[in-house]
């Protein structure tokens, strides 16, 4: 996993731009939630099934949510296209990266909608990369204005990026007690690392003096807090503050 992430970061150097938010004189609100600010523009939680494709689905969700925020929602975007067509990034196997998914979208000049290329990898199988939409029509792709990686990650740089841009794709380590999470503010207490996960950070808050991030997972609405979770903020809990990326799609039909 570490080797793959390092290689992906080197390959992305010329494509995924590093951005350094100005946090001087920044006074963040106590809480912020993109679901409250933008309502239905934030798309519903999806379920990746047994496919280890959070790297693709979280990036596709990021694009879809940004389009909704820009008032030109196209519904869910195609995680399946990334999984089936980006063969460099392990598809349903562990090891794909968000940076790899952003590179795929940039190099293939966009991403199709889920209506065009629907998700079929719930059971871990990977269909061949399609040349047309499922209904036989030509594929229309939403292009990116750019893809970005937050440099010098701090609590404040994540907060200001959420306010200025929107959802942020974040990597985190997964422990057994996270898989068993049913609600509350998550902090790893027992068990070993059993995998990794890419998710979207949608905001932050504080409860009983404990600070947290709001995360959007890809494990369906039956997990956690209806598919969402809260995780300890400001301590790099489970490495969730170690890799932050996002893309800016072009709102054009």
UniProtKB/TrEMBL annotation:
Gene Ontology BP annotations: proteolysis
Residues of the Peptidase C1A papain C-terminal domain: 28-248
Source species, domain of life: Eukaryota
Pfam families (UniProt xref): Peptidase_C1
InterPro entries xref list: Papain-like_cys_pep_sf, Peptidase_C1A, Peptidase_C1A_C
UniProt keywords, alphabetically: Hydrolase, Protease
Similarity section: Belongs to the peptidase C1 family.
Protein name listed in UniProt: Putative cathepsin B4 cysteine protease
